[in-house]
Write a structure and sequence with these properties.
By secondary structure, the chain is mostly helical. It folds into two domains: about 60-120, Endolytic murein transglycosylase (Dna Ligase, domain 1); about 135-325, no CATH class. Helix content is about 45%, strand content about 10%. It has helices at about 15-50, 70-80, 85-95, 115-120, 140-145, 155-165, 195-215, 225-240, 245-260, 265-275, 315-320, 345-355; strands at about 60-65, 105-110, 130-135, 185-190, 330, 340. The strands form three sheets. The protein has a two-stranded antiparallel sheet. It has a two-stranded antiparallel ribbon with strand order 3-4. A hairpin with a 6-residue loop joins strand 5 and strand 6 (about 340).
Length: about 350
């Protein structure tokens, strides 16, 4: 008789309770995997809402009204297509510390990332600017006319302030109230909070800053002139020079004439004395030279009492840095406005004849 022997460790089959536990473990594992997949999918969906990727869309103007809540703003942004989901945007703002956005106008883009939108809103609303260009060589009255181009500003009010002495340049002597020649020519961006006084103050401050950079605080200005007198010289250079290379030479002629006691005889001062409007072709007639005005340098020795125009940086530099030379005369010699410079009256007369022969009206 053969007897089958069995190993004591041989598995006769797991008990029912163990098999049930194994099935529960498998089910739990599968549920966990599904939960992870669901969370990942949700996160990817939310992430796609937060940052949709790709280039932003068209620019859109959005106005946040006064008293708008974060929820109101979220709905507004979603309606304009700036963000894709108002609720997600609201949660995004809350999770990032919350925010209190200002009412006003914003320029945003459709299909933007929420971080970018929040950053733009945090910067505050855009401020509307008017642009005012003031070129070199204008008189104070002409600057006022330019100011009138900004619809909400008044030329009359601007000029009233500019003549009152209420706003002053550091280079403005006591007893002189007018800011003639003491405003800097530039392009100004004027926001909606600025009025005539604020604009005037900014133009004077910029002039003072540039004049200081150029050297108007020096104690040894050419000819022993004061800073204000040197600004007057700069205004004459600005009015007379038509090409850059002439500025330093015209400066020298002015300084040489002042030092020798000659009349300046500068046409631009006669034009200013006549009200600032040259005759056709820019000519000055002999009868114009008789105008009774302290600005007429054909009749009055020395400098005019004030600048006659606003000088730019180059003219300011030329006034304090005249080119070395003995010239006492200049005349328009080329059709582009370039001048010929002479030491003697005889040489000057020859230059005048040569200019006329070339068809140039000196």
């Amino acid at each position: 008789m053969r007897v089958r022997l069995f190993d004591q460790d041989h598995d006769h089959g797991a008990p029912q309770s163990e098999r049930g536990a194994s099935r529960w473990l498998v089910a739990l594992a599968m549920a966990a995997v599904l939960a992870v997949v669901a969370v990942a999918a949700t996160w990817l969906w939310v992430r796609g809402k937060i940052d949709p990727g790709g280039p932003p869309g068209d620019e859109v103007a959005v106005t946040v009204p006064e008293g708008a809540t974060t929820s109101d703003i979220a709905e507004l942004l979603a309606a304009e297509g700036v963000v894709s989901d108002a609720r997600i945007f609201r949660y995004y703002v809350q999770l990032n510390g919350g925010a209190s956005f200002q009412a006003g106008d914003y320029s945003l883009r459709r299909n933007s990332g929420m971080g970018e939108v929040v950053a733009t809103l945090d910067d505050g609303p855009e401020i509307a600017f008017d642009q005012l260009t003031v070129p070199e060589g204008l008189t104070l009255e002409e600057v006022g006319e330019r100011v009138e181009e900004v619809e909400r500003l008044s030329s009359e009010r601007f000029l009233e302030l500019a003549e009152s002495g209420s706003t002053r340049s550091r280079y403005q002597p006591s007893g002189v109230d007018s800011l003639e020649g003491l405003l800097f020519p530039d392009t100004y961006r004027i926001d909606e909070t600025e009025d005539e006084e604020a604009l005037l103050s900014r133009m004077v401050q910029l002039f003072d800053s540039v004049a200081t950079e150029v050297g108007y605080d020096r104690a040894d200005l050419p000819g022993g002139l004061s800073p204000y007198e040197t600004i007057v010289v700069a205004s004459l250079i600005e009015s007379e020079a038509k090409v850059p290379e002439d500025r330093g030479k015209i400066s020298r002629v002015i300084h040489n004439r002042l030092e020798t006691g000659m009349l300046l005889q500068i046409d631009a001062t006669v034009i200013y004395a006549r009200g600032g409007q040259p005759r056709e072709g820019g000519r000055v007639l002999f009868r114009d030279l008789e105008v009774d005005s302290p600005y007429n340098t054909y009749k009055n020795a020395g400098l005019p009492p004030t600048p006659i125009a606003i000088p730019g940086r180059a003219a300011l530099e030329a006034a304090v840095n005249p080119v070395p030379g003995e010239w006492l005369y200049y005349v328009k010699y080329e059709k582009n406005g370039a001048h010929a410079f002479s030491v003697t009256g005889a040489e000057h007369n020859r230059r005048i004849a040569e200019a006329k022969a070339k068809g140039v009206n000196p």
